[in-house]
Every structure is written in structure tokens, then in C-alpha cells.
Design brief:
alpha/beta; 11 helices; 329 residues; 37% helix; 2 domains; eight-stranded parallel sheet; ornithine cyclodeaminase, domain 1; globular; Rossmann fold
């Protein structure tokens, strides 16, 4: 029988740390090496309730297991006092197809692997010294993206802009208390962009909130909110002055991510295309080379991340079961 693991169990088992980042990096490298069977996303909208359902999977040649994930985003849920993300992940044996484990994570693993991806992008693209870190959004992912960013950079101040001022102030208070970094809420998104060295955008917005006029030398932006053709956080003009445009998977980002509108608006041509993150991690392409560059990373989320984190959790589970067996012997 497959082991069933609840969200509560997962919170006790795993943490957002350097080991998890390494596991997700392994997936990106395998993707760039051409070792990943990565089908397109099965996606469905739920009209009237701002709901969406995604199914993602990926098999990596040589790996003994792979994941199939069902994730949901119902963006009116916070008004009901419940999280917007939900879902589950199954881990299957690559040789037999048997289910090894079921993670009833309510979207927690998606949250962690998305945050880990943001940190990985920041590690190779953000300026080496970050004084101000800007956060666009105040939901669950805004918190975890900030927590992940602090693994790779140490800003002196955090600035938040969100449409919901109450949630923005609650997030600011939480971050200040947990990390002892001054965190402030700003009413003008352009001020956040113009005043920050690195920014993460993590909203389900359908109209851009980040404007090209606020972009400046040395800025890094990681955009994680746009993962559907109806979403857009950045004006396409934000990408025009970028010295380096990076994405997790080009064919997916030009359909679902910030690269979609940029491609439509002619920002890209045959000589200027996004670089995939795995190429930088493998050393095939260069990341940021100086602190004056403008860099943008478009992350839409790929199934290899889900396989990577599910296998990582399974290893932690095996260690936990082994330790229990030893202690009870």
C-alpha cells in the first residue's frame, strides 16, 4: 500500500532550505540536458469563482520515480478565510507505475517548489548586494518567496505592495517579527520597483501592475504569478531594456507567462530569446555578470519541479521510517 502523507505531516518533515534548493536545481539541470519527458499542462478554468485546475507531470530518464500533481487555485478563497491553493501529488514507480506515496499537501509542495525556484533564480540573477527587496503581492506565495529569497540574499529592507492593504500590513508585520528585517507597505507599486534592487511578483493579476517606467539599472525581477494566458504582472516593456531574460521553459512561458505578451509585442526576435534557467545552472549560459545589468526571470512552473520535490520528500520519509524502526528495535 502506498504511504499517505498529509499536509500536517509534510510541515513536520521538510523545510525550505539549501537541500531542497539543490533538489529542484537537479530537476532544472536534467531538463536542460534533454533527459525529461515533459508533456504540456492539462489546464481547466472554473468560471465564476476565479478557479483553475492544473495537472503537471514529468519523467526524468534514470530516475526511479516520477510525480503526477493536481493543483488548484481558487483566488476568491481568501475572502472565505481559506487558502487559494489546494491539491495533491502522487509519486509513482518508474518501472512498474505503482503508486509509492500520496501527498495530500493542499498545495504546500507546490508552494515550496515555487519558492525554491524563485531563490534559485535570485541566486544567479539578483545583484550580489541587495539593499531593498520588493514584494508585489501579499498572499501565501509572497511570504514563501520572501523566505526563500533570504536564503540567498540579505536585504536591509523589504517593501510590499498589494491590492489588499490589510493583508499587506499583516504580511509586513509577520516578516518583521520573524526575520527582524524592517518591512514596510508602500501604496505605489512604481515606488517599490524604483526603490528595490530585486523584486518578486506573485499575484494572479490579469492586468500588469509593474510598469516599464519604474525599471532601472541593476534591477532584478522574478515573476511567478503568470501561469495562464489570461494573467500578466509585467508590462511587456519591462522586458525590453533587460540585459538578460530568463525563463524556466521557453515553450511554456511564451504561451502562459510574462514572455507571452512580450512575444506578441515583438520584444523577441531570432537573435533575442529567453534563456532557460537550467542552461545557466549547468554553466552553458551566463547569469548576471555585473551589478548594473537588468535581469528578468519568468517562472511558470514545470512538472520536473514537482517530480523533484516529491522524490525529495520520499527520501525524507524513508529516513524518517528508518529512524523509527531503529528507535523501536
Amino acid at each position: 500500500m502506498p504511504q499517505v502523507v498529509t499536509e500536517e505531516d509534510l510541515h513536520q518533515m521538510i523545510a525550505l532550505n539549501a537541500d531542497l534548493l539543490d533538489a529542484i536545481e537537479d530537476g532544472y539541470r536534467a531538463l536542460d540536458e534533454g533527459r525529461v519527458n515533459l508533456p504540456g499542462i492539462l489546464r481547466m478554468d472554473i468560471p465564476g469563482v476565479s478557479g483553475e485546475v492544473d495537472v503537471k507531470t514529468a519523467y526524468v530518464a534514470g530516475w526511479d520515480s516520477f510525480a503526477v500533481k493536481v493543483s488548484t487555485g481558487f483566488f476568491k478563497n481568501p475572502d472565505l478565510g481559506i487558502p487559494s491553493g489546494n491539491g495533491f501529488v502522487s509519486l509513482l514507480n518508474s518501472q512498474t507505475g505503482q503508486i509509492l506515496a500520496m501527498f495530500l499537501d493542499n498545495g504546500f509542495l507546490t508552494t515550496l517548489r515555487t519558492a525554491a525556484a524563485g531563490a534559485i533564480a535570485a541566486r544567479v540573477l539578483a545583484p550580489s548586494q541587495v539593499q531593498n527587496f520588493g514584494v508585489i503581492g501579499a498572499g501565501t506565495q509572497a511570504y514563501w518567496q520572501t523566505r526563500a529569497f533570504l536564503l540567498v540574499r540579505k536585504p536591509e529592507m523589504i517593501m510590499i505592495w498589494a491590492r489588499n492593504g490589510e493583508r499587506a500590513h499583516a504580511l509586513a508585520a509577520s516578516l518583521t517579527a520573524e526575520f527582524a528585517i524592517p518591512t514596510t507597505v508602500v501604496d505605489d507599486v512604481d515606488i517599490v520597483i524604483a526603490s528595490s534592487d530585486a523584486v518578486v511578483t506573485c499575484t494572479p493579476m490579469t492586468r500588469p501592475s509593474v510598469h516599464a517606467d519604474a525599471v532601472h539599472s541593476g534591477l532584478h525581477i522574478t515573476a511567478v504569478g503568470s501561469d495562464a494566458p489570461t494573467k500578466q504582472e509585467l508590462e511587456s516593456g519591462v522586458l525590453e531594456p533587460a540585459d538578460l531574460i530568463v525563463c524556466d521553459l521557453e515553450r511554456q512561458c511564451v504561451e502562459l507567462g510574462e514572455c507571452r505578451q512580450a512575444d506578441v509585442d515583438g520584444v523577441f526576435d531570432r537573435t533575442r530569446r529567453p534563456i532557460e534557467l537550467g542552461s545557466i545552472l549547468r554553466g552553458v549560459s551566463k547569469g548576471r555578470t555585473n551589478n548594473d545589468q537588468i535581469t528578468v526571470c519568468d517562472l511558470t512552473g514545470v512538472g520536473v519541479q514537482d517530480t523533484a520535490i516529491a522524490r525529495y520528500v520520499c527520501r525524507q520519509l524513508l529516513h524518517q521510517n528508518r529512524d523509527k524502526a531503529i528507535s523501536s528495535a
